[in-house]
Amino acid sequence: MSARLRGLLSHPDALLGFVGAVLFAVGTYGVADIPRNDTTLQNLGLAPITYGSGKALAWIAFWTGVTLMVIAWIRIGRAVLAGTSDLDVRGTRWTVCAWALPMLFAVPVFSRDVYAYLGQAWVLAQGYNPYLDGPAHAPGPIVDSMAQIWAPTTSPYTPLFMLIARGVVAVTGQNVIAGVFVMRLVLLIGLALSLWALPALAERFGASRRLALWLVLLNPMLLAHLVAGPHLELLMMGFLAAGVAVVVGAGSTSTEPGMNSASGPDDIRGRPVYGLLLLGVAASIKITAAVAIPFVVWMWLDQLRRQRAARGEAAPLGARRFVGVFAATALIPAAVFGVFTLTLGLGLGWLNGLSWASRIINPFTIPTLAGHLVTYVAAPFHVWNLQQVLPVTRAIGEVVLAVLLVWFWWRSRTDTRAAVAGAAWAMLAVLLLEPSTLPWYYVWTLVLAVAFDLPLWVRQVVVGVSVFFLITFQPDDSITFYKPIPSLVALLLAVLAAVSLDRRDPLRLRRLRDWAFAIPPKHD
């Protein structure tokens, strides 16, 4: 065992979270989305954990693990904010790896999306077009394990991810457990990129590198969904964060002066072309990453202006240079996307699959929440089915989103810092105004937002929302939001977690302990 790992395991909060991750992973074998029509657990003698008392023990292990991870996460964050933490950046990276390690061996939890990835890839491997034919065309253990609502639907996944998934099933075939494990290994590339990119982005704009890692990669909700889930956002976020980091010059230095401004140190120089290549890869994994690409125009132009100022050139950039930067920003990632599209050979059929997202109905986006409220408020006067209202509210949401994206892009034209902030706001707008949002989607915004020194209340909101979603979305792919008592419990625990980030003992339990175990004063 390395000295670094021994040191990590001697840190009480890091160790506490690791124990929680182990319990979490063990518990998934009884409460999570076990592959169907698969005898692996029976062959290993683990079948009793899936029913009766074994399932109850697994439930206890799972939620105990979640609790320990959340407690450790909040304690580490509070210590870093207070300046009392002895975990440096390298130690925080090792902590992320330690917490993620047990999750590699967990049963897919909180959703069955990974089975859908394998199902779409298996259809492709069997000679079908997944953009026209659903996984049900190639029945077997993979399709059996999917959420059956998606079995007949076409793939919404962009070309690079389909190529990756096809490579996975080429190795694992219809072995579902092996397919999930290999898929996780591939997605870990995104975790590795994020471990570099997030601290680099934070350092570039004067924020805390440790808090960047803490807010996103140590976040139990995101770890659970992205690694134990697993979800392709893990890979997408790595290339997204790395692409933006390379564009703005995070983690790289130059001896050339002239970059001195509020946007960053005077020895930083970006590499927009290389960054756009990475962003093209990110968009080829999931198209949402393309939202950040237009903001590179302003980052690139800002760098050119500073280079001219460093050379003593007072004349502003001409229209020709602006058009060239605009064209390059559009064409470079488009070329990357086009190469993967041609390699896959199925055109743009994934656009058809995007419409299936409308089947997901939860009130965590503004248009869907508005649809729920309209039906409730109008109920005494007119009975409207939710399916009648949602198309209207979602259409309005799409119009508002389009306007906001253009506005965020235009108002961020001042410098690099404003452009990165604008990209983060644009991602948040997509998150809140698209038809449906799921917990792991929050990584879209967070990987860019950590570049800045966020106020305490923002971090508390992230903590609260993370804990709420970690409880509301159940390990067996169900959701308790529409059940009043479980939702209230989740909300109260979320508020407690958020307050605990700033207060060590918000419930004053220490006073209760001191009162309960106090020793009476001695008298002579």
Provide a brief overview of the structure:
With 524 residues, the protein is mostly helical. The chain is built from 23 helices and no strands.
Topology (elements, then pairings):
Layout: H1 3-9, H2 12-31, H3 40-43, H4 52-82, H5 89-103, H6 113-125, H7 141-145, H8 159-172, H9 176-204, H10 209-216, H11 220-228, H12 233-248, H13 272-285, H14 296-310, H15 319-344, H16 350-353, H17 366-378, H18 386-411, H19 416-433, H20 443-449, H21 456-472, H22 484-500, H23 509-517
Helix pairs in contact: 2-4, 2-5, 4-10, 5-10, 6-8, 8-9, 8-15, 9-10, 9-12, 11-21, 12-13, 12-20, 13-15, 14-15, 14-19, 17-18, 18-19, 19-20, 21-22
Written overview of the protein:
- By secondary structure, the protein is mostly helical.
- It is 64% helix and 0% strand.
- It has 23 helices and no strands.
- It has helices at residues 3-9, 12-31, 40-43, 52-82, 89-103, 113-125, 141-145, 159-172, 176-204, 209-216, 220-228, 233-248, 272-285, 296-310, 319-344, 350-353, 366-378, 386-411, 416-433, 443-449, 456-472, 484-500, 509-517.
- Helix 6 crosses helix 8 and helix 8 packs across helix 9.
- The longest helix is centred in the N-terminal third of the chain and has 31 residues, at 52-82.
- The chain is globular, with a radius of gyration of 24 Å.
- The relative contact order is 0.10.
